[in-house]
């Protein structure tokens, strides 16, 4: 039974890496690492690393001069991450209880993970603990759902056809869109010099079908929602009409995907 669950998690993580990472997440690795001020020799921790796109970019930048550790609680995500980048240290663990000593890292990053932590304040406190005094933090979260162009339409479609749990799984990434509340959360964990920079990325899927399948077959299973095939096909068919406004002349699905990058430092004292 355990092995079956593990294989299901690997399948979901593989779909996530193939469908979501190139369309949404890869573009944010460079801005997040720029924001944290990555320097030669840095020891960097990527919290909620998923399949490791941010950690891989950090490892490429640092080379042999630094050390990159990626942490995630999902064994499927870590299995895919390990296969893609065996040179990175991949660690099983939760953000709320980081399995590292005090002052272990020069920089901590987290890309689109903070929204899903059970106790966000405690997780941020743990990030602060493992940073050295003066160490840097950079976290990316999505802007509000209302600013995500195509996704409010898809959420409404999912709620009508598949029900509230499916719709809520797609709403979940957008719950930290309020800039002031986000800054207050990070300040409340004891960080200093907190700043929030909103940048507008582009979601770019090969087609509408790829976009919606990325959610139905990649994202929803990660969030514990699995739909039967008949329901998936119904949603795919209706999405072709509901989201047609975001289809380009060459058939891609393209729309704005704004996100906040919050930066902070651990006080020296």
From TrEMBL:
InterPro entries the UniProt entry points to: Methyltransf_11, SAM-dependent_MTases_sf
Gene3D superfamilies per UniProt: Vaccinia Virus protein VP39
Gene Ontology molecular function, alphabetical: S-adenosylmethionine-dependent methyltransferase activity
GO biological process, one term: methylation
Keywords in alphabetical order: Methyltransferase, Transferase
Methyltransferase type domain sequence ranges: 45-139
Coiled-coil intervals: none
Pfam families given in the database record: Methyltransf_11 (PF08241)
PANTHER family assigned: 2-METHOXY-6-POLYPRENYL-1,4-BENZOQUINOL METHYLASE, MITOCHONDRIAL, METHYLTRANSFERASE
Protein's UniProt name: Methyltransferase domain-containing protein
Species of origin: Denitromonas iodatirespirans
């Amino acid at each position: 039974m355990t092995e079956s669950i593990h294989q299901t998690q690997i399948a979901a993580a593989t779909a996530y890496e193939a469908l979501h990472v190139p369309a949404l997440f890869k573009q944010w690795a460079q801005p997040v690492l720029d924001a944290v001020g990555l320097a030669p020799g840095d020891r960097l921790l990527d919290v909620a690393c998923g399949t490791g796109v941010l950690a891989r970019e950090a490892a490429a930048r640092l080379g042999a001069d630094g050390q990159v550790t990626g942490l995630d609680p999902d064994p499927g995500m870590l299995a895919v991450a390990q296969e893609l980048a065996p040179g990175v240290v991949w660690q099983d663990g939760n953000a709320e209880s980081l399995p590292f000593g005090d002052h272990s890292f020069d920089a901590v990053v987290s890309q689109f993970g903070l929204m899903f932590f059970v106790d966000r304040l405690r997780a941020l406190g743990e990030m602060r603990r493992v940073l050295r005094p003066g160490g840097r933090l950079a976290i990316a979260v999505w802007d509000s759902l209302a600013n995500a162009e195509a996704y409010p339409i898809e959420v409404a479609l999912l709620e009508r056809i598949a029900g509230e749990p499916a719709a809520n799984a797609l709403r979940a990434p957008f719950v930290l869109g309020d800039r002031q509340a986000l800054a207050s959360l990070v300040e409340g964990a004891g960080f200093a010099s907190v700043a929030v920079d909103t940048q507008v990325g582009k979601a770019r899927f090969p087609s509408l079908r790829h976009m919606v399948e990325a959610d139905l077959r990649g994202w929803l299973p990660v969030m514990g929602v699995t739909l039967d095939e008949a329901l998936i096909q119904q949603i795919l068919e209706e999405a072709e009409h509901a989201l047609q406004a975001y289809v380009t002349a060459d058939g891609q699905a393209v729309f704005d995907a704004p996100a906040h990058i919050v930066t902070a430092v651990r006080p020296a004292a």
